[in-house]
Design goal:
The protein is 51% helix and 23% strand. The chain is an alpha+beta fold. The chain has two domains: 13-72; 77-181, 2-Layer Sandwich (Tetrahydropterin Synthase, Chain A), CATH 3.30.479. It has a three-stranded antiparallel β-sheet with strand order 1-2-3. The chain crosses the membrane at residues 21-40.
């Protein structure tokens, strides 16, 4: 005989299961983002790694005299040298927008190497200008809007030193950067 007081078991609603699944997926995404942010290198670490890779590619011994170390060492005298002042206008047909960029770029070299740098720069100025122009042309609006311009500076530094044949340029400095997207 069936008993009349038995209560049927309640099944969780499909809305509750959906919310539970979304909560689990959200928690996993947050954990992955936190883990990734801890593993992604900072701009300084990326710059140091890039200089070490350039030295290794040239077969040079990797030393600790990277850009940051050169700034900290006492008695290091540097000079600023103008690399390029120009204006670029480019049209992006995908977004139907025109980007106008005005900039002045200086390079920082060791005072002892200034004469040698100027000689190498005069010999390779057209290639250096081309590399700078290509870097600015390839830059996204977000890269240009970045306050430190870290990515663009690293790219110009690496391309210029590669063109010169050795790391003579220690730092890249923007003294003027204006861009308008219309």
């Amino acid at each position: 005989m069936p008993q009349e007081n038995e209560t049927p078991t309640k099944k969780p609603s499909s809305l509750f299961r959906l919310i539970k699944a979304l909560g689990i997926v959200s928690a996993l995404v947050v954990v992955e983002m936190v883990g990734a942010s801890m593993l992604i290198p900072s701009a300084e670490e990326t710059e140091q790694l890039a200089s070490e890779l350039v030295q290794a590619a040239k077969g040079e011994e990797i030393t600790s005299t990277d850009v940051e170390t050169a700034k900290v060492e006492k008695g290091v005298v540097t000079k600023e040298v103008e690399l390029l002042t120009d204006n670029i206008t480019r049209f992006n047909p995908d977004t139907d927008m025109t980007l106008n960029v005005q900039f002045s770029i200086y390079g920082v070299v060791l005072a002892d190497e200034e004469a040698e740098f100027l000689l190498e720069y005069a010999t390779n100025s057209n290639r250096i200008h081309e590399q700078i122009m290509l870097t600015i042309h390839a830059a996204e609006s977000a890269d240009l809007a970045n306050a430190g311009l870290g990515l663009i500076k690293r790219q110009i530094l690496e391309k210029t030193n590669r063109t010169l044949g050795r790391p003579m340029l220690r730092e890249v400095v923007f003294t003027k950067l204006n861009f308008v997207e219309r």
